[in-house]
Design brief:
Chain lengths: 405, 358
């Protein structure tokens, strides 16, 4: 099942063996949407289905106990990866980042916060959920323009009683929230909270979130080499404040005719109504283990991704007729051209077995309303990619754009 | 434009392969927008076009723009061809209903109606009109024809009474019987399908059940030197009319009917049908000699024959033929010969023995 072209791939020696199932001539370069899953993650998921495919959190038999142990282990792995304390934070599982951010914002208590602050380069998961939350809470919402280097410029007075919701890494051009530490500290000083959209951060830049002190971090496991899953890492203090309205399943302690009580000590369950995706949670644990141990060609994942990013950025920047919208190299590089519409270019690339994303990447406000840009073409690198993949992308783009002009 | 063309092509592809049906649904959504004057779904249009162009883009990137324009032009052509095909189908269907042929100007070219000799009208073809820069004239003719067909639809619904079209000097194949209904046929003596109808009528005993009369109508043709489709048809018609004016006394079958019988059913010593002789071998002089020989054989004396000759070339006969032509073209409005009128209906073309026995 997972051994497609394994021998061919192994013989080339250019790709990580954990991605040996990818054919030589195929270039998947859309990791920002969903990363490919390395073999250890696929095997962990398959092992759950074949060896101990039981419910967790409610049974006393052996399989279920094993599931509970591994789910708990994954929660701890997430906290360990982010260097956050189990005493202050809890880890909950949802379906994706968008769902997690909405769960948090829609359950914020009324009257506690004075405003919502977000930025212009946010994904719709943040941009729209902050609009609805502001309306629901009856508080103002302010959109601050991020600097070209990704910094969120603010005055301390802006942060009084604020709920700050921003991404740590942009899914448009990979811009990083460089002042995250100051932002968190200043917001806390002004009585506010910080919620981080870490969807694009966890795969290759999780170090910038380590011990960052944010009140909540939402991310998607499927963008960090794990199965499809959403994760909320939140301060227990924040969860305790929330007006929990999505209820049921594992969070219930007691029920009377007209009322109920939630488990007082298990705050992670507050975002987990109903049965969980146990196989995917266990797969996330395997992905974190793999991410921390993998050494692509003897390099750290971060260093490897930086090299690939630089190669792609330099190559695309030199193609006449291509406009790279990034301010600096990043695993996420977005372009547009005057020769072809991005959707058409994506289909042409698909004809060459290059799978890249075209469109506005759920960033309608920034790209369409503010920048008034045409549809864009986004390349997002992953650890499965190789320098040969990058070269193929550059060469193909060059051929299409220069000769097609 | 492109999504409509894609929809048309996908309809055809979907007939043969289910894999195109999902895309057909998408293209329909796009077409629905287009026909309601909303912008077409650009995603669909771009997706289809880009997929079609992707191979060109990767092999010959410099040809993409040309191929793109080619696709748009192709889409316009597909649309025009489809629209024209639909028009032709509708027009042909209407013609088939009204005239019994899908092509009234040349009914022999249409295999859908009954077999018949067509009354052809010569009009410039599309290519002629393009080369002579008179496309507007060609278009005008097309729509004029369509209008004529539509205006003639009521003729198919009307009750056809032979007496409304009978010539004043009508003769009947067998003695007129008040108790029988009348049947009228429009025939050209040179038309092979009129001959076939005559043979079928004989076999079906049609003239025993109806008072069978006829209008002799030499089919005009602008292509022929004589001005008629069959070279000697006018001459034969003149003598048939002359024989009606000067009938044989005491003949059980009128002389003109006997001449028709000989043309349609007799053969010469070489076993060649006389209809073929008149059409392909006889010049006017030979034809007249044969007709006069037959008249003598039928019982016309020398003086009668001289009178027949005079009568055949008279203005009276010419007027009768002209009046009959007017009846056929303006009142009956048929484009197929033979045409029979009986039982309240008009029947265009050859009728089978079974049809005639009903």
């Amino acid at each position: 099942m997972f051994k497609k072209n394994q021998h061919t791939q192994a013989s080339t020696g250019t790709r990580l063996p954990e991605f040996s199932f990818i054919a030589d001539d195929e270039v998947y370069i859309d990791t920002a949407c969903q990363s490919l899953r390395p073999l250890p993650v696929q095997q962990a998921l398959q092992k759950y289905y074949t060896d101990y495919n039981a419910c967790g959190g409610r049974v006393k038999y052996a399989w279920g106990q094993k599931v509970d142990g591994l789910v708990e282990q994954t929660r701890e792995s997430v906290l360990k990866l982010l260097q956050l304390s189990k005493k202050d934070y809890s880890v909950s599982f949802t379906t994706n980042t968008t769902y997690g951010i909405n769960l948090l914002l829609q359950q914020l208590p009324a009257g506690t916060y004075k405003k919502i602050i977000t930025s212009d380069i946010e994904h719709n998961s943040v941009f729209l959920s902050t609009i609805t939350a502001a309306k629901k809470l009856g508080i103002p919402r302010r959109v601050i323009d991020r600097d070209n280097d990704g910094t969120l410029p603010y005055k301390k007075a802006d942060l009084v009683g604020a709920v700050v919701v921003v991404n740590a890494v942009s899914n448009i051009d990979g811009r990083k929230l460089k002042n995250i530490a100051d932002l968190v500290k200043d917001t806390h000083d002004q009585g506010g909270i910080v919620i981080i959209d870490a969807a694009q951060t966890m795969a290759h830049s999780y170090d910038m979130l380590q011990n960052c002190g944010a009140d909540a971090i939402c991310f998607s496991a499927h963008k960090m080499y794990a199965p499809s899953l959403g994760v909320i890492v939140a301060r227990k203090k924040l969860i305790a404040q929330l007006d929990i309205s999505f209820v049921g399943g594992g969070m219930v302690h007691a029920v009377t005719k007209d009322d109920y009580q939630l488990l007082p000590d298990d705050l992670s369950s507050r975002f987990e109504p109903g049965l969980q995706a146990f196989g995917e949670i266990i797969g996330l644990g395997a992905a974190i283990d793999w991410l921390q141990s993998v050494k692509p060609f003897g390099k750290s994942p971060k260093q490897y991704m930086q090299e690939l990013s630089q190669q792609l950025y330099d190559g695309l920047s030199q193609v006449a007729g291509v406009t790279v919208i990034n301010y600096e190299p990043s695993p996420v590089i977005t372009i547009h051209t005057t020769t072809y519409d991005a959707h058409r270019l994506a289909i042409f690339l698909s004809g060459a077995n290059i799978m890249a994303r075209s469109g506005t990447f759920c960033c309608h406000y920034y790209l369409l309303e503010k920048q008034r840009l045409p549809p864009l073409l986004r390349f997002s690198l992953g650890l499965h990619n190789t320098p040969q993949d990058v070269q193929k992308v550059i060469t193909t783009i060059q051929k299409l754009i220069v000769k097609g002009a | 434009m492109f999504c409509i063309a894609a929809f048309i092509i996908l309809i055809l592809l979907s007939i043969f392969s289910a894999k195109y049906r999902k895309m057909l649904g998408k293209s329909w959504a796009c077409v629905a927008r287009r026909v309601t004057f909303r912008p077409c779904d650009t995603n669909f249009k771009e997706e289809v076009k880009s997929k079609l162009l992707s191979k060109v883009a990767l092999k010959k990137p410099n040809m993409v723009k040309a191929a793109d324009i080619g696709l748009e032009v192709g889409a316009v052509l597909v649309l025009l061809i489809t629209a024209w095909s639909l028009y032709v189908v509708v027009k042909s269907g209407l013609n088939l209903y009204v005239y019994g042929t899908c092509n009234p100007s040349n009914s022999a070219s249409c295999s859908l109606g009954a077999e018949a000799c067509s009354i052809e009208t010569v009009k410039p073809s599309f290519i002629d009109s393009v080369t002579s820069f008179k496309v507007h004239v060609w278009l005008g003719n097309e729509f004029k024809d369509l209008g004529k067909t539509v205006s003639n639809i009521p003729t198919r619904l009307q009750n056809w009474e032979p007496k409304d079209y009978l010539p004043q000097n009508a003769t009947y194949q067998k003695a007129f019987d008040q108790s029988k209904q009348t049947a009228l046929e429009v025939i050209d003596p040179g038309c092979t399908f009129c001959k076939q109808l005559y043979i079928n009528q004989k076999q079906a005993g049609f003239a025993d059940r109806y008072n069978l009369s006829y209008i002799a109508y030499p089919i005009p043709s602008a292509k022929e030197k004589s001005g008629y489709k069959f070279e000697n048809s006018l001459l034969i018609t003149k003598y048939l009319e002359a024989m009606k004016i000067r009938p044989l006394k005491d003949a059980s079958t009128p002389a003109d009917w006997q001449i028709i019988d000989r043309i349609f059913t007799w053969q010469d010593d070489a076993k060649v049908s006389y209809q073929i002789r008149f059409n392909a071998f006889y010049n006017e002089k030979d034809a007249e000699a044969k007709l006069l020989q037959w008249a003598k054989e039928l019982g016309y004396g020398d003086e009668d024959i001289a009178a027949l000759k005079t009568s055949a070339m008279s203005t009276t006969v010419s007027d009768i033929i002209a009046a009959n032509r007017k009846t056929v073209e303006d009142k009956i409005k048929t484009v197929k010969i033979p045409t029979s009128i009986y039982d309240g209906k008009r029947h265009d073309g050859v009728l089978s023995v079974q049809d005639l026995q009903r």
